[in-house]
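Re: duplicated header lines in exported structure tokens

Our pipeline writes sequence and tokens for each protein into one text file. With two proteins the header for the second block appears twice in some exports. Here is an export where it did not happen, for reference. First protein block:
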Amino acid sequence: MSDQISVTVADGVGHVTLDRPQALNALSYEMIHELTDVFESWVDDSEVGIVVLDGAGERGFSAGGDIRELYGYAVDGNAGEARDFFRSEYRLDALIARYPKPVVAIMDGITMGGGIGLAGHAAIRIVTERSRVAMPETRIGFTPDVGGSWLLARAPGELGVHLALNSRTMDAADALHAGFADAFVPSERLPHLLQALAERADPGSPAEIVMLFDETPGPSALALARDWVDACYSAPTVREIITRLRAFAEGTPDAASSSFPAHPLDPAASAYAGAAADELETLSPTALTVTLESVRRARTLPRLEDALEQEFRLVSWFIEQHDLREGIRAQVIDKDRSPKWSPSTLEGVDPHLASDVITAQVHEPVWPDRTPPVVE
């Protein structure tokens, strides 16, 4: 197909591999279009009964969208091209989510951002002991997109808010618990799984075949943290979340945080909560404020496409903002890890900003013929 993806069809299995291992299979605009062409061509192809989606190399399925490409759009003033990229990407994500044939996505290794957009909405999502799954957008002054807000909003309790605000990375057990994956298959068994899918015998469905290789990973740290995460991240604002985290870490919950767990303070949980508060203090106040509103509103939306439209309004705004350019510069370009956010404090963020950006339809939507309703 190209030097960025590889495609084969054999034994009824359409196999598409992201093939930029030197860039952790980061998604370029070219790859988005090529993947769309492949998936569209297989919809009515009688030779394809199952689609397998994976990434080349052993380091990751996909580290996300090509951040350097996004940075180029931002600094060169090509916001229109960036919006075209996001529209194309979101349409592909929705196509995979609604695909009429089973899509088996193998999230072996690093799977973040745009990688979750491809794999996170597939019919069967597999993680391995090497999986590292995250929506890390707040680290670059951005907000979860590619349907990430939809998945985060449906995680148990307030875990999705924690994952979104802190850009927390999940292992296989966490991804399963949070609803980002369906099965755990050790990486050494993946070749055998692919062979079984190719040799499938009716009436065994792809899901049933995957279950033959499914194992139970270790305990989920997210699941163990659920009680205090719910208590802290249910606060109405990011500032109050930080206040609750510090109170929990210090063992001094106040009256406003009466839902804190009643059991004796766990030193490990205390350290975890304190570190989470410290981390939030270093991230973009604007990105945190908007992300909190985005995930909470996504809980009320009826369809993935509605969440994608909401995200598109946000990313269309972010692409022209200082914090996204500064976040990419600090983390990816110069790598000094010292971004200068503007505003620099949560108190400096307009309290109406998130709502205003989410509800403002400034640019042509992803699906012009069926714009989803605005959630008030």
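Second protein block, exported in the same file:
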Amino acid sequence: MSEHISASVADGVGHLTLERPQALNALSYEMIRALTAVFDAWRHDPEVSMVVLDGAGERGFCAGGDIRELYLYATGGHVAEALRFFRDEYRLNAAIARYPKPVVAIMDGITMGGGIGLAGHASIRIVTERSRVAMPETRIGFTPDVGGTWLLGRAPGELGTHLALNARTMDAADAMHAGFADAFVPSASIPHLLQALEERADPGTPSEIVMLFDETPGPSALAAARPWVDACFSAPTVHEIIDRLRAFAEGRADASWGAPRAGDGSSHPADQPAHAYAAAAADELETLSPTALAVTLEAVRRARTLPSLEAALEQEFRAVSWFIGEHDLHEGIRAQVIDKDRSPKWDPPTLDDVPSGLPARVLEEQLHDPVWPPVVE
């Protein structure tokens, strides 16, 4: 058992807690292996009828994978170790999704990247007023993984495309609207919810108990922005998405792509007018890795057609297997996490310089052994 994981069983409830609050419970490989071992042990344990998954501290459930550990793998020539990390993480994500017992995930505070891989596939996903949910991979020259493209591809309209490319952070209402969460429980009520799950008075199922504490989080700003998000982010390329965002922000929306007029009242989560939100989204896209954006757009759109979470994870694994040796991932982590100068130098530097066939090749080419070996009949 990792020192950064605690596990206990009481009254039929297996309680798993990420215990690395000083790092926002970021996932190390050791933690992934420990979580996998506990889930495996509890799968057939008659003393465990449900699992509660949460994080220590008040700041976050899990900020994602340990980026510094990934950086050391990527820049130190330890590709095999990096791929082992991803394979084992993705198998854990799928195991949670297919777990034979209810898994109640409490996404209190920051829940991003690898944290969504744990909680986003649970059977009951709870957010609070402190929840900040995102797939922020494009900010480090990477692409959403841990089944993130599966969730993003199934968000309403083009919201998932926007969330993926711009790495936008969702509050509780946004996360529920986008399909990343099922219930809103105020953080002050979480201890009472845990007690009720252990006592299991009527009503007795985990879902019914959670519903007793479920409240309405308020309106989703993401939902309000959907008309122009759908219009802009349905464009076939990232370049055209940016062009549409600029046109909408400047009041030049084209009726042929169903765009609402600027100033229609839709707002950014920070209460910016819609046209300002669109301009900010375009500005941000122009600062991010062109390669990461092109691959991410293709990945989310392909994920919509895939038959299962496992198929999406395999597609993501092919992408991360390629990214792990690429300049932009190394440079993005350096600029955002290591040196923190926030001035990455992408290569290639512009969308026009990204080869047109690159995203398809990255997502289709099997550079290494897959997450799940093919079944031989």
